Amino acid sequence: MTLAPPAEVGQAGRFGPYGGRYVPETLVAALEELATLYDGVRADETFWGEYHALLHDVVGRPSLLSEAPRFSARVGARVLLKREDLNHTGAHKINNTIGQALLARRMGKPRIIAETGAGQHGVATATICARFGLECVVYMGAEDVERQALNVFRMRLLGATVVPVESGTRTLKDATNEALRDWVTNVESTHYIIGSVVGPDPFPRMVRDFQSVIGTEARRQVLERLGRLPDQVVACVGGGSNAMGIFAGFRDDGDVALVGVEAAGEGVASGHHSATLTAGRPGVLHGALSYLLQDPSGQVAPAHSVSAGLDYPGVGPEHAWLRDTGRVAYAAVDDATALRAFRDFARDEGIIPALETAHAIGWIAEARARGRQEDVVLLCLSGRGDKDVAHVAALLDGAV
Amino acid sequence: MTSLSESRLARTWADLRGTGRSALIPYLTAGFPDPATSVAALRAAARHADILEVGVPFSDPVADGPTIQRSTFQALAHGVSLPETLELIKDARLDVPVVLFSYFNPVLQFGLDRLLERAAALGLAGLLLTDLPAGADSEVERAVRASPLDLIRLVAPTTRGARLDDAVRDAEGFIYLVARLGVTGASRELAAGLGESVARVRAATSLPVAVGFGISTADQARTVAGLAEGVVVGSAGVDALARGGVEALDRLLGELRTAMAPA
User: Fold this and answer.
1) Is A285 close to B109, i.e. CB distance below 8 A?
2) In 3-state terms, what secondary structure has residue A157?
3) Which of A93, A109, A173, A387 is catalytic?
4) In this predicted model, what pLDDT tens digit does every residue of A101-114 receive, in sequence order?
5) Running DSSP on this structure, what letter comes out for residue A58?
6) A-chain residues near B109 (CB < 8 A)
7) A34-38 long-range CB contacts below 8 Å, 24 or more apart?
8) How close is the nearest chain A Cα to the Cα of B103, in Å?
9) Distance, CA of A111 to CA of A192 (rounded, Å)
10) Whose CA is closest to A97, among A36, A61, A54?
11) What is the pLDDT of residue A337?
12) Model pLDDT, residue A146
């Protein structure tokens, strides 16, 4: 069992020029407290012991590495699946909420807030709050409340208060704004469990570290199974936490290609997409400098994706740096390709993936059309698609 | 570096000290409720104001409550962003010192140097960046300090100890003290402990202190005027403008002005 997270990347809360702490003054003290606490626990084996015990007990880790024989045959590569979909609550999000809930407990904060898009982070937060006996308030865009009704009900069952956010785009971006406003108001009693590798320092590096268990396990599992590393690691990118988590295990393996797949929505050229790293430019949103979808005067542009979890105009600042340095290649897959992958993967493998993950699957599925395929591809199967079934049924009009 | 002797805000504070009055500092969102009315509102506010804060609309105003959020979204719907804000300020031909109030991203996209140049040409007195706390970006801080504009700093109830020293160290013009935890917006009662917060800031800096967030009534304005050199009125004025137009804004600021007169 690994007790220590991977080595720190990024000085002073920056990844190259990206990251930072662009927040109202009211939050600065809380971020300093959190950063000091986190810097302290990084070398604290008791903390990581507790964290890993909970990952085992609550989540069921380590998660499996599975073969995908029929999908592999179709795409012409050996595709291995890192099964975050089998985690308790159905996605990778819970790895992070456990780490942050432990930090909240150490800070003596009895109240937790979170933002959520698809609802997976909200469910994961509500779950750990129930387990720890913490008050939980989840902000969710009103549009997402409609398209992810199942997860809304799950959160309420778990004792959380779900607040639909009607302002602005009524999706994840504005849910995050509202969570930040709550935090500014209640910062002395409240910890904000940000769900992705976004936000002001120390969130991006902290969430990455809590998700790096994905990559650490996967690297060991691939080596055990094949006696070699994969040629390529593929993950979907909205804010980018599952991708940062699995990439963290391979970033120092220069021969392993890393690919992040964003949502191209109705196509990057249509303007209706969430392909921040493909079509955005640097800007500041939600406390960090990173790539951003925005108009020429710096107003944040509405994102679009069929998948609520990718429907976000920003992206984690470390991804921005990995893009600029070329260590990770970023691509974008549109709604139609993702929906096709969602359906085909279910039939090939008996696994219904999350719509977010379906973007990464769609990218691998199209590799042959691009004329090149690697021998061994590791896919981060970041979540399961039960939450998406009703939404997809409506989109396909029952015509599966 | 702007020295106190030459800054436009410093002259305003010096004049006020002579009268024993506190400064009335209204905030208005540029372009709200529409560009033409916004110019009229700025001119009306300037008649009562000692210093005027003009807000640049931004799509994601995380420090603002519902009133200013709505004004911001409406201004954006009229196409008012940072370049248009500068035009509106120019059109209003204001004779009070103006502090430009903005989230950082519109400034970053416009170009900081370009903004400082334009703002100086327009005679703007100061710049306040809502989500750029002290220490967040030393290059930006250096550039603003090297310009004729004063760099206004926010201090919050959570800004204490060493952080307070950091927050005020390179501040210019005045300190904007956020009266309570939370976003902008009217509140029924002033925050308990406001006097202590003001005293804490005074112990850390000799700059004048202006208090904002939640001040909407004549009584509140009078109380705060007894504690601090400046009284910022934001959401209450924006709300008056939304409900009753320029006339209602004019009336509200007139009442506050009267309430703040020294006894």
Assistant:
1) no
2) helix
3) A93
4) 999 999 999 999 99
5) I
6) 283, 294, 296-298
7) A34/A103, A34/A107, A34/A191, A34/A202, A34/A206, A35/A201, A35/A202, A37/A103, A37/A106, A37/A107, A38/A103, A38/A202, A38/A206
8) 9
9) 9
10) A54
11) 97
12) 86
Provide ipTM, 2 decimals.
Answer: 0.95
Residues facing A91 on adjacent strands: A383
Query: Closest Cα partner for A285 from A186, A208, A366, A204?
Result: A204
Q: Which of B50, B53, B150, B229 is catalytic?
A: B53
SS3 B115: helix
Do residues A77 and A377 touch, judged by C-beta distance below 8 A? Answer: yes
Residues A250/A278, Cβ–Cβ less than 8 Å: no
> Each residue of B224-259: pLDDT tens digit?
999 999 999 999 999 999 999 999 999 999 999 999
What pTM was computed for the model? Answer: 0.95
C-beta atoms of B105 and A298 within 8 A: yes
B64 belongs to the catalytic site: yes
How far is Cα A344 from Cα B68, in angstroms, rounded to an integer?
48
Instruction: Give the architecture-level CATH label for domain B8-259.
Output: Alpha-Beta Barrel (3.20)
Measured between alpha carbons, how far is residue B169 from residues B102, B143, B203 in Å? 21, 16, 12
Q: Provide the residue ranges of all domains of chain B, joining segments of one domain with +.
A: 8-259
Distance in angstroms (rounded) separating the CA atoms of residues A219 and A240: 19
The C-alpha of A17 sits at a distance from chain B's nearest C-alpha, in angstroms, of: 11
CA A165 to chain centre: 21
Residue A338 neighbours by CB distance under 10 Å: 30
Report CA-CA distances (Å) from A122 to A51, A90, A238.
19, 12, 16
**Choice among A132-141, A155-164, A350-359, A387-396 with the minimum mean pLDDT:** A387-396
B187–A contact, CB cutoff 8 A: no
Of residues B109, B156, B157, nearest to A296 (C-beta): B109
Q: How many CB pairs under 8 A join A and B?
A: 122
What does pLDDT average to over chain A?
Answer: 94
Going by the DSSP 8-state scheme, the letter that residue A76 receives in this structure is: T
pLDDT band for position A372 (cuts 50, 70, 90): low
Nearest 5°: CA angle at A40, between A46 and A315? 105
**Three-state SS at A47:** helix
Residue A333 dihedral angles phi and psi, to the nearest 5°: -125, 135
Q: Which pLDDT tens digit goes with each residue over B106-134?
A: 999 999 999 999 999 999 999 999 999 99
- Token reading at A390: 């009703």
A288-292 and A281-285 strand pairing: antiparallel
From chain A, pick out residues whose CB is under 8 angstroms from the CB of B156.
Answer: 24-26, 28-29
Chain-centroid distance, C-alpha A329: 17
The DSSP 8-state label assigned to residue B167 in this structure reads H
Residue B169: both structure tokens together = 């160290």
Question: What is the mean predicted confidence (pLDDT) over B182-186?
Answer: 87
Catalytic residue status for A115:
yes
**Sheet of strand B150-151: strand arrangement:** B150-151, B126-129, B98-102, B52-55, B23-29, B230-233, B209-212, B175-178, B153-155
List the single residue in B62, B155, B182 with the smallest CB-CB distance to A25.
B155
